[in-house]
Amino acid sequence: METAQRLRAMAALCRQSVALHPDRSWKLLAEAEYWEHLAATPLPTDIEGCFTPGQHDLAAA
Known about the structure:
Radius of gyration: 19 Å
Low-confidence stretches: none
């Protein structure tokens, strides 16, 4: 949740920067869209299984 808020804040900063740098508006707006896309992408909530050995791993050891 906090990560999505930070990503959306980055998008907002890019949009605000357009007013200061109109010559780079296309790049800043594209970057804002990128940050919004990242914020909308669901992040894995349970990555604990990636780092702990499972039963199969323990039997093989």
